[in-house]
Amino acid sequence: MKKFNFDEIKAKKAIKLLLESFGEDLSREGINRTPERVVEFYKEVLSGNNINLSDLVSVSYSSEEHEEIVFIKDISFYSLCEHHLLPFFGKAHIAYIPKKDKLIGISKLVRLIEVFATRLQLQERFTKQIADSVMDLLKPHGVMVIIEAEHLCMTMRGVKKTGSLVITQSMRGKFLKDKDIRKEAMSLLGK
User: Residue 151 catalytic?
Assistant: First the structure.
């Protein structure tokens, strides 16, 4: 994995320049610490760039031979759109069908979503990255990821449509090939 370096000094200078370009007085009480606050914000919301997925997600071998759908739905997330650096947020839903005794702790799937959410993103890529990672790390019979998100670039600017949701999905293995399995998973989602 490529190491992602966050240069706090450059980021702070950039925020100061941006504020000055808006005509702000950087010595004003309400704004004099804004560059530091914004840098801390970006460090936090982009923290997923340096996380090695294989360190985060380990496969458990269990005496349970479960080869049916495991579904986690309504996982809240926040991310930043790489086009406007504005947030998009919503719910992620992930289902997988393990192979016999190869299971993963369900909290690990939530953490996987958080890792990809804490990078500059496009929703389409975000959805695909989660599905591909589950397939690569677990080698399950299949995986399905559905993301429902509101994008502030559509809410605050441009078309200004509050509450509009973008829905993306990515399916692999049995979820892609078997209509009955896909239909069963969608019924668990309530769709």
Answer: yes
Residue 93 designated active-site = no
| pLDDT tens per residue, range 149-181 | 999 999 998 899 899 999 999 999 999 999 999
Which of 88, 162, 164, 160 has the alpha carbon at shortest distance from 127? 88
With cut-offs at 50, 70 and 90, classify the pLDDT of residue 59: low
Tokens 């000055």 correspond to 20
- Known catalytic residue: 64? no
Given the residues 24, 66, 67, 84, the one annotated as active site: 84
Maximum alpha-carbon separation in the chain: 65
Q: Which of 123, 129, 141, 148 is catalytic?
A: 123
66 is catalytic: no
What's this model's pTM, rounded to 2 decimal places? 0.91
74: left (phi over 0), alpha (psi -120 to 50) or beta: left
Q: If we measure between CA atoms, which residue out of 137, 155, 185 comes closest to residue 88?
A: 155
